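Customer escalation, tier 2.

The customer says the design service returned an amino acid string that "doesn't look like it belongs to this structure." They asked us to rerun it and document both sides in this ticket. The original structure tokens are below, unchanged.
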């Protein structure tokens, strides 16, 4: 109520008790505004006093229903392979019957329908939010594949049905095929969602709204072919309705271009669930909502690692939350995938995951050192050019780095841009890009010699890859470009 000037000045006064013809007790009324999205179930507004520590119920509204709880919503695109000729669309509805995508010049494809239940959530001796008070029915998740497309081309589509309604007509672009000459992509981690009202949530990511608006501007300017969101996706962490809010937030971007993801600790980790890190970070979700909402081109459920080629880049995307130790299934897959890359076809090899190998922030778990010991030699062996991680909520870039030692330093070009010599390969460049929304982490005063650039601002990484150059820049809030660098 503190934001309502009529309440603060008591312009809407009402007398509740009179004594001797005079008002003895009066009240002041005001108004609150809430931003809600269609979560397919009735909503009540409950007024408490006493704060979070000693809440006391004062009043509650009558239930409010959505006009169309079966409406198809939050459609988002992803690539299924490296051809650029097929795109998957995934959306949410309150209706379990198959719906359709109408796209191109009269093509139609029916959706496959799935969902998940409270029984699919993880828990322990202490009930998890996902299994208990954070549960919300996700409705039905629809997914369908648009085929017969052309890479690097623009098409239109709509999704839904005659009985639940249709989305608006949306234009989307396919990514360039693997092996073609050029790719423009955006990458970031740790976005989440920003409330559009004065709500207090268990997790608030204050930078998410400004970052997604900036990315949407890039997409609307036709400057982006695809997006890679590398872990800590929605931060729902067991409060399932928050996935709907996140899908609503990214819709202006994810409905237009391929939105690829990697799994993070806040999607997967839980006690006794098989995750590498024994933490309750997913709130009991254990990767189930993530894999349902964001079907990536993986080999099987709960094996969320994959590779894809777009333009001149081969992307190897791993899960830092699943076993990566030597001779594990994921390790052997990574080894085989990177060894198979044809550098004549895709000269650039980019490795992505969530938890970083290198950061000047403290507080890392011992397992993360083991991750570096196990996987880092594969990066050098296969001449990985660029390594991108999130998890730490800032931006940090290294020299050409291996085993905590700079193997080469970038030179300044005529414009003062750090330029790494990719032709005389020495080691990968690492960058932490977890600055897309969550409250920012400050840097330690103990700066490592391998840390060349550090920015604690909200933003994302923008990349432009040709066959000869990989040019990158960090775009921070208000579109001020703070850091450029190239690998040539």
């Amino acid at each position: 109520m503190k934001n309502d000037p009529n309440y603060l000045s008591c312009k809407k006064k009402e007398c509740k008790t009179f004594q001797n013809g005079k008002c003895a007790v009066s009240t002041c009324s005001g108004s609150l505004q809430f931003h809600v999205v269609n979560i397919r179930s009735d909503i009540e507004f409950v007024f408490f006093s006493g704060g979070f520590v000693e809440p006391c119920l004062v009043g509650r509204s009558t239930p409010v229903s959505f006009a169309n709880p079966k409406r198809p919503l939050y459609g988002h695109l992803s690539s299924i392979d490296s051809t650029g000729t097929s795109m998957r669309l995934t959306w949410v509805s309150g209706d379990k019957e198959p719906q359709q995508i109408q796209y191109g010049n009269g093509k139609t494809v029916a959706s496959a329908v799935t969902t998940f239940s409270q029984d699919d959530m993880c828990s322990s001796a202490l009930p998890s939010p996902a299994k208990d008070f954070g549960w919300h029915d996700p409705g039905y998740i629809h997914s369908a594949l648009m085929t017969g497309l052309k890479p690097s081309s623009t098409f239109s589509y709509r999704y839904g049905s005659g009985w639940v309604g249709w989305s608006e007509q949306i234009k989307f672009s396919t990514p360039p095929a693997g092996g073609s000459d050029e790719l423009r992509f955006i990458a970031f981690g740790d976005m989440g969602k920003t409330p559009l009202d004065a709500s207090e949530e268990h997790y608030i990511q204050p930078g998410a709204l400004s970052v997604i608006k900036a990315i949407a501007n890039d997409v609307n300017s036709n400057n982006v072919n695809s997006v890679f969101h590398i872990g800590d996706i929605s931060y729902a962490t067991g409060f399932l309705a928050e996935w709907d809010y996140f899908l609503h937030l990214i819709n202006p971007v994810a409905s237009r271009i391929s939105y690829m993801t990697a799994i993070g600790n806040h999607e997967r980790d839980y006690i006794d669930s098989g995750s590498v890190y024994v933490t309750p970070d997913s709130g009991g979700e254990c990767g189930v909502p993530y894999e349902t909402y964001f079907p990536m081109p993986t080999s099987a459920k709960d094996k969320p690692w994959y590779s894809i080629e777009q333009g001149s880049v081969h992307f190897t995307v791993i899960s830092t939350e699943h076993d990566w130790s030597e001779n594990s299934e994921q390790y052997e897959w990574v080894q085989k995938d990177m060894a198979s890359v044809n550098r004549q076809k895709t000269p650039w090899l980019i490795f992505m995951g969530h938890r970083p190998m290198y950061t000047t922030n403290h507080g890392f778990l011992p397992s993360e050192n083991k991750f570096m010991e196990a996987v880092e030699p594969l990066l050098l062996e296969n001449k990985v050019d660029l390594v991108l991680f999130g998890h730490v909520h800032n931006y940090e870039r290294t020299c050409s780095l291996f085993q905590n030692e700079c193997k080469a330093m970038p030179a300044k070009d005529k414009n003062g841009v750090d330029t790494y010599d990719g032709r005389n390969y020495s080691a990968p460049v690492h960058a932490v890009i977890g600055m897309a929304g969550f409250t920012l982490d400050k840097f330690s005063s103990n700066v490592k010699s391998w840390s060349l650039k550090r920015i604690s601002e909200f933003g994302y990484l923008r990349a432009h890859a040709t066959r000869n150059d990989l040019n990158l820049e960090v775009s921070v809030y208000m579109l001020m470009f703070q850091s450029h660098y190239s690998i040539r």
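Tier 2 assessment: The sequence is consistent with the input. The first helix runs from residue 5 to 8. Residues 5-60 form one domain. Sent an explanation to the customer and offered a walkthrough call.
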